[in-house]
Design a protein that fits this description.
By secondary structure, the chain is α/β, with parallel strands linked by helices. The protein is built from six helices and seven strands, in the order H-H-E-E-H-E-E-H-E-H-H-E-E. It has a seven-stranded mixed beta sheet with strand order 3-2-1-4-5-7-6, with helices on both faces. Helix 1 runs parallel beside helix 3. It starts with a helix and ends with a strand. Bound molecules: S-adenosylmethionine (SAM).
Length: about 210
């Protein structure tokens, strides 16, 4: 991992924060709604979801590949009432967790960055208990060809600046391909701050492991 991604990106994520943006607050509240029991959060970042964790959560395993993020996250979540244990790792390789280990998995703006979307979702599906739920909030490929074209052109840039971030992934199709049945899904266009239109396509909802 580059020094830029290990040091600057976690600093940027923390400074950028998002506690004051009402749209992001609402999106995170929705994504966290219904989490319960033992939860795995993939791509924990610095822990921006922790203020939205419902009290029905028993424990959180915070999976994160970036040491710089983990270091900042440990400080950021130090006051949390919920027990959070940190595991360094990637969503595509959850071999340290047995099948059906978690009641729920949470991913917010992480599936854009994983190395292999299909492998990550296959692993997420494997570690959720049958009947358990996958909660997601992701920015996704635009439904229209003009914005999708911008996303395709800009993805090499965002992959560099935001450490792996693809703008142009069809994440809903990948969730279904991994074997989840979609319980609820919202496909929203949300302009956050000065964000351009081609960055404003989000999906959020839950998928159930059959
Ligand atoms: C844009 S940040 C989002 C962080 C956090 N989920 C949030 O909503 O604030 C993307 C996160 O995914 C992590 N990440 C990148 N590749 C990953 C992978 N293969 N598996 C799990 N997390 C990954 C990054 O280190 C980073 O913390």
């Amino acid at each position: 991992m580059s020094l830029y991604c290990e040091h600057f990106f976690p600093w940027f994520m923390e400074k950028m924060g998002d506690s004051s943006n009402e749209i992001i607050k609402a999106l995170r509240r929705n994504a966290n709604n219904g989490l319960r029991g033992d939860v795995l959060e993939v791509g924990f970042g610095i822990g921006h979801n922790t203020p939205y964790y419902p009290s029905e959560i028993a424990s959180v395993t915070a999976l994160e590949p970036n040491d710089g993020m983990i270091e900042r996250a440990k400080r950021y979540v130090s006051g949390s009432n919920i027990h959070i244990s940190f595991v360094k790792g990637r969503a595509e390789a959850l071999s340290s967790f047995a099948d059906s280990s978690f009641d729920c998995v949470l991913s917010t703006m992480t599936l854009c960055s994983v190395g292999s979307l299909s492998e990550a979702l296959k692993e997420i599906h494997r570690v959720i208990k049958p009947g358990g739920t996958f909660h997601f909030l992701e920015h996704v490929a635009a439904p229209n060809p003009i914005d999708r074209n911008f996303q395709n052109i800009l993805t090499p840039v965002t992959r560099t600046i935001f450490c792996g971030c693809h703008l142009n992934r069809d994440i809903e199709a990948a969730i279904i391909d991994a074997g989840f049945s979609i319980k609820d899904i919202n496909r929203d266009q949300q302009r956050i701050g000065i964000m351009p239109k081609f960055l404003s396509y989000f999906i959020y909802g839950t998928g159930a492991r059959k």
